[in-house]
Design goal:
The complex is a heterodimer of chains A (about 280) and B (about 280). By secondary structure, chain A is mainly alpha-helical. Chain A is built from 13 helices and no strands. The two termini of chain A are about 45 Å apart. Chain B has a domain at about 60-230: Orthogonal Bundle (MetI-like fold), CATH 1.10.3720.10. Chain B has a two-stranded antiparallel sheet. The longest helix of chain B is centred in the last third of the chain and has 32 residues, at about 245-275. Classes of the chains: A mainly alpha (about 280), B mainly alpha (about 280).
Chain lengths: ~280, ~280
């Protein structure tokens, strides 16, 4: 019996190891290959120990200046989206947590319903309108679009986090003469900061990585890094793998680090947005 | 204070979604004003074999993604309930694909599966399985796209199921075992029943999101060869940005919206009861 149990344990851990390989190997292989000479990249089996070179990164810098401009665009869009979404979601989430009436409840439900809508369908009417408004290919447009996609989830997360806070603190602050703005900034935000972080991580990962809308609504000035990586993959004259690997590595490091550091907030966000508080 | 949120949602989601309903009843392209044609766009859509191919592909890809993710996610969540060394690190690694952008995901999988030179291609050849002809064979394209989509989104499904499993109380399980239930029986009768709400939520959201699948296929083949690997999102994109048939594109959008709402209906009905009536 004990031997059988040990056998089951070994199989279980082997399967976990397999899952770890499935998740990590595709990423690891590309990161490693970004430090290899072009002729070694497709060596089979891939070598894990080798003399690393920065040649691919130098080539990326020299031949693909648009990638670094796109990286800058991604940064601007991501920070802008995070800021707009957090402010708008906190305001709405606070009201929806503290007040109940037919209109507000309907709004909360409408937000859930709108998350079911496939976003790509709105590109059809939006594209000509935004073109006329000269908003296409601007950072502002991507910020507003991405914020619109995430304000529902953000509001629900903030609503759940605010609802957990005791009312007494806000009442006490009000008695002391604090206005609503002061109460929000001084009392609610510090206590609901975990909610803010949960919203931030979802929005940042989304905005930093979003592909379809950036492909559709940007051409040059506001092109983001994921789209440029896609373009590098689509070149006719043969893909420069080493350079793409360098670009992919540069793009993934900050957001991967963020997800690993803040992973425990992902669960909180997933459950707050999906089920009743 | 709710106004900014509502304004964003109305301007970029709600109003455009309503507007495509109207637009789908018109013939509309650049340089001419829209002309009302009733249901002609829908008739043309239903008569277009490319649309049917895209619909069928969407059906296959969406189910492959959701079922594959559910099986892998549930299995992994169960495996991770037991003792695992350095568990937080392992979970962080399992979540990593969530942080990867779709175009980099394609880069990574193409690196392994590139015809003739990829390392998995070598292994497949060594095993006598031939190559995965993802660039020319639409079945292989859709299979690889589904695989990559599962890789990207497994963290989501896994995390929801893992979080749900950790809430299953141990004494209930032990009671079931004492009453003579086998391990599998206890799992089916107790655990699965307790995590069912979370499981249904995960499946529903994954269906809703998988219907939007675009980048995986677009970056592999752009829906080719000969539009054979298109899904509905790519069909809509082509009608809009290549052929400028906004009426047709809108009709496609209405179809996608209807599919999503149909799947979401039970969930939305429950949320409506809880939030609007009970709230």
């Amino acid at each position: 019996m004990a031997r059988r149990r040990r056998g089951v344990e070994a199989v279980r851990l082997a399967l976990v190891a397999l899952a770890v390989a499935w998740s990590a190997l595709p990423i690891l292989l590309v990161v490693l290959a970004s430090f290899k000479e072009a002729r070694d990249i497709f060596e089979v089996p891939p070598r894990l120990l080798f003399a690393p070179t920065l040649a691919n990164y130098q080539a990326l810098w020299a031949e693909r200046p648009e990638f670094f401009r796109a990286l800058g665009s991604s940064l601007v869009v991501t920070l802008g989206t995070a800021l707009v979404t957090i402010v708008v979601s906190t305001l709405a989430g606070y009201v929806l947590a503290r007040h109940r009436n037919r209109l507000l409840n309907g709004t909360a439900f409408g937000m859930v319903a709108l998350r079911m809508l496939p976003p790509i369908i709105v590109t059809v009417p939006l594209f000509p309108v935004l073109n006329a408004l000269r908003l296409n290919d601007t950072h502002l447009l991507l910020v507003l679009l991405y914020a619109a996609f995430y304000v529902s989830l953000g509001t629900w997360i903030m609503r759940a986090f605010v609802a957990r806070l005791p009312l007494e603190l806000e009442d006490a602050a009000a008695v002391d003469g604090a206005g609503l703005g002061q109460i929000l900034v001084r009392v609610v935000l510090p206590l609901a900061v975990q909610g803010v972080i949960a919203v931030a991580i979802f929005v940042v990962v989304f905005a930093w990585n979003e592909y379809v809308f950036a492909l559709i609504f940007t051409t040059r000035d506001a092109r983001t890094a994921p789209v440029v990586i896609g373009e590098m993959l689509g070149t006719v004259e043969g893909v420069q793998w080493g350079v793409i690997f360098a670009a992919a590595t540069v793009q993934l490091v900050p957001v991967l680090a963020l997800v690993i550091v803040l992973q425990r907030y992902l669960v909180a966000g997933l459950t707050a947005g999906a089920v009743k508080e | 204070m709710v106004a900014p949120a509502v304004a964003l949602l109305l301007a970029f989601l709600a109003l455009p979604a309503v507007y495509i309903g109207w637009l789908s009843l018109n013939v509309s392209t650049y340089g001419q004003s829209a002309r009302f044609v009733g249901l002609a766009n829908y008739a043309e859509l239903l008569g277009d074999p490319v649309f049917w191919r895209a619909t069928r592909n969407t059906f296959v890809v969406v189910n492959a993604i959701v079922i594959g993710e559910l099986a892998l996610g549930l299995g992994l969540a169960v495996l991770m309930q037991g003792r695992v060394p350095a568990k937080p690190v392992i979970i962080a690694i399992l979540l990593a694909p969530y942080a990867i952008t779709e175009s980099s995901g394609i880069v990574m999988w193409r690196y392994m599966l590139e015809p003739d030179v990829g390392m998995v291609t070598h292994v497949l050849a060594r095993l006598g399985l031939g190559q995965l002809e993802w660039s020319t064979d639409p079945v292989a394209t859709l299979a690889l796209a589904s695989l990559i989509a599962i890789w990207h989104h497994l963290p989501f499904t896994f995390l929801i199921l893992y979080a749900a499993l950790t809430t299953v109380p141990r004494d209930v399980l032990e009671a079931a075992r004492i009453d003579g239930a086998g391990a599998f029986q206890a799992f089916r009768l107790v655990t699965l029943r307790l995590i069912m709400p979370a499981l249904l939520i995960a499946v529903l959201f994954r269906y809703i999101f998988a219907i939007r699948t675009f980048a995986e296929i677009w970056l592999l083949t752009e829906g080719g060869p000969a539009r054979l690997s298109e899904v509905l999102a790519i069909y809509l994109y082509r009608e809009t940005f290549k052929y400028h048939q906004f009426g047709m594109a809108s009709a496609t959008g209405v179809v996608m919206l209807a599919m999503s709402l149909l799947i979401a209906l039970p969930y939305l009905r429950r949320m409506f009861r809880e939030v609007v009536r009970g709230g």
